[in-house]
Amino acid sequence: MTANHDLHDACAKYVLDCDVHLADDGDIISLIYFMRPGKRKRWRYLRALVFDGGPVSSVVAAELARVIPRAIKLERLTFQRAEATLSAHPDLALALAALPSVRHVRIENGYQHTCRMLEAMQWPLESVSLNKTNYTRSWRDSDKLDRLHPARLLQNSRTTLKFMKCQSWTECSDVLPTYPVYPEVHTLIVEDVWCPRSAQWAKSFPDLKRLTVGTIEGHFMEDEGNLQEYAAARRRNMNEYAHTEEATVRTTLESFAGGPLDLYLLGLPCRIRNISISVCEESLNFFTTAMEVALPTYLNLRISHSLLRAPATSLPVCLLSPGLRELERLSLSFSYTVPDHDSSMDEILELIFSALLRLSLREFSLTMDYRKFPYCREGSDDDGPLHLEPPGCPVEGWFTNFDPKKLAQEFVDLIPSLERVNLAVGPASTHNLQAFLRKEGGVEVAPDVVSLPDEFRPVDPVLWDMHYPLGV
Fold first, then answer.
1. CA-CA distance, 327 to 301, in Å (whole number)?
2. By the 8 A CB rule, do 301 and 318 touch?
3. What pTM was computed for the model?
4. pLDDT tens digits for 337-352?
5. Predicted confidence (pLDDT) at residue 207 exceeds the cutoff of 90
6. Which burial class, exposed, middle or buried, applies to 429 when counting CB atoms under 10 A from its CB (0-12, 13-18, 19+)?
């Protein structure tokens, strides 16, 4: 009998160590029944709970609120439709807020009841994602916009929080009268919002190291008609930094990921050691201005295919920016689209060679792939058959005959300071990283041929799927 009990207990522990998904009343009822054996001690094995956002009745929500306090070791909470779930019964939000061990939370579609839960919680939170506010007219509170500001909303966890991600969290005030201080926050991700007031981050996050920003302006970049608005937003942020207490303004940021316009708008007054950024024709001018202040030592630069079209005169502009004069490591990547481009691979490489001559790099990484779009013979009907590739495609021939060691040697010969070359060349589905080290009289294959470290991965791999369910 004891052995049978132990087996059931071990099986329950194994099942509850994974994410438990609750889609609707049926799932919640099944979970409650599953937890009953062993005097309901199975609750202590529950580690991660995911509310998938299906309909929950008031009766079932009330029963869940009654028994959930037993989940004393629950660490991860996810809400797909937080307002729909938490509004099912008034006790549910407070019962979840009273749990003692919640460390990681992701909230989708939060608003009034989410605010109530987060204001009541005393969780030792380490990471949080606030994704999308779910506006309703029924919440009539003149202070609600301040209450929903992330810095105020999460202040009960300000001593433990390390990672904060806010995406489309728009129903909140731009600024607060005063700011709680989060001394442990090292990573901040702000996406799908209008240009944020970045000076407030210096007040709330004094130890911020990693910053990722994706503004609405950057996603929907306008033509020159909006340049004055962009410049005004940048000046506003720079002026607010200028009036911020000097001791709170950082002099160096470890890494930034985003777009050139995003970085330009923020007006950050500090150096940024590592930058991961994508550049297209429309963002080229913002890139140059932003780099002059950032002065990175490592740049991960993704080039838009639009900069590779003949005569490809825009490509060197990125690499000739005065703000790259202290660059030590450069990672350059682009896709060559067939038959969209007229420039040959040799012409593109020549442009890269000429731009790199002015840099004093120690390490250079180049990732190149090509993609073939359906090709229609000139003069054929739109409804006619598509030729899957242009006849006699020279680009495919170049990639087929590519000699990685020869190309690495050319880079080493070109740049006297270069110590290492990493190459990943070919169709994206097949290319492998190849690394070469400088040696006397040439290059040699590096013994540590591994994937390049992602210095911008913002969370522990265990939490990656939780905060990035759809990837990046």
1. 12
2. yes
3. 0.89
4. 665 555 677 888 888 8
5. yes
6. exposed
Out of 132-141, 153-162, 387-396, least confident range: 387-396
* Residue given tokens 């950057």 in the structure block: 218
Give the per-residue SS3 of the chain.
CHHHHHHHHHHHHHHHCCEEEECCHHHHHHHHHHCCCCCCHHHHHCCEEEECCCCCCHHHHHHHHHHHHHCCCCCEEEECCHHHHHCCCHHHHHHHHCCCCCCEEEEEEECHHHHHHHHHCCCCCCEEEEEEECCCCCCCCCCHHHHCCHHHHCHHHCCCCCEEEEECCCCCCCCCCCCCCCCCCCEEEEEEECCCCCHHHHHHCCCCCEEEEEEHHHHCCCCHHHHHHHHHHHHHHHHHHHCCCHHHCCCEEEEEEECHHHHHHHCCCCEEEEEEEEECHHHHHHHHHHHHHHCCCEEEEEECHHHHCCCCCCHHHHHCCHHHCCCCEEEEEEEEEECCCCCCHHHHHHHHHHHHCCCCCCEEEEEEEEEECCECCCCCCCCCCCECCCCCCHHHHHHHCCCHHHHHHHHHHHCCCCCEEEEEECCCCCCCCEEEEEECCEEEECCCCCCCCCCCCCCCHHHHHHHCCCCC
Query: How far is CA 83 from its chain centroid?
Result: 25
Domain edges within the chain: 297-457
Residue 198 has pLDDT above 60, yes or no: yes
Structure tokens at 200: 């407030």
For Cα atoms 269, 274, 280, give the angle at the middle one, nearest 5 degrees.
Answer: 85
Cα–Cα distance for residue pair 203/245, rounded to 1 Å: 9
